[in-house]
């Protein structure tokens, strides 16, 4: 049952991104990637405001209260996603993406909750619906509408179908939202401060580079992150389990060896797949894949270090002190900005890609280093305050 849940979650996560990267030309993919970044931003807010405060707190509310908080956040995403969607130049795609971001935010929080409490009877049908409806609606729409609109409608349809299969929440009223933030204020404050710094580097910086790169190069630049989807496929479904284990469990020699081997295996697999695609001429009409094949080694390294950094970031979010999170995130934010801006200035798109890879390596080294230094701590926290 757990294996089935993980497989469905992985496929549901990758479906819309895989369709986009295979079917959209670079300029359209750049527009889609900008909208997808907004979705990522609100899922990040969902973790900081809804999911992890609930998980870290001594009092765990039932789904109606959690769902109300998730619903309120989803409603807040509407104006933000609409502001980005208007630049798509396609009314159908703009409306669909606005709906998709809101439904994805709600579904993301709901899946975290039900996976954490072991309620697979809600997780599996929702993931199956997201996968089936996304792929089915795209297949039905692609011959009849613009490629970008087909992707946007498929994303919206799959996310809405999945969200509707979850139990009904309480109404997301202002009173319930205020109560939620009052109960979880301390955790929300520390987690939101950390995630804001993360989002500045992972979301705001790429969006800031978009006008400098232009739509086509921005699409290729974001393809690097999209090709790291295997990391999210492996780690996101088990994030509640990673956070639920004692922090010291993750920094044993056995655990570190397994994590490192998994990262290397993912990186080598991605590189081999890109080489095979390039050699076989598969997707040869896609500039995204043509460009990706030229950066095979870089992408392999990026995926490997991203796996390590993401894993230990999940550990830190569950166990670290607020000060430790802040210090580490500042280091990572500064390196992300510096490496990517300098790389862009020196070598354009290639420099930006190299800078993104170096920034991911800094994140991995910083979180693993902090975890290793604190391996003997008796507090059960992986990351202790860095002084």
From TrEMBL:
Keywords in alphabetical order: Membrane, Transmembrane, Transmembrane helix
Membrane-spanning residues: 30-50, 62-85, 91-110, 122-141, 147-170, 191-213, 219-238, 259-283, 295-314, 326-346, 352-372
Keyword match Aminoacyl-tRNA synthetase: no
Annotated signal sequence range: none
Domain of life: Bacteria
Name of the featured protein: Polysaccharide biosynthesis protein
Organism: Microbacterium radiodurans
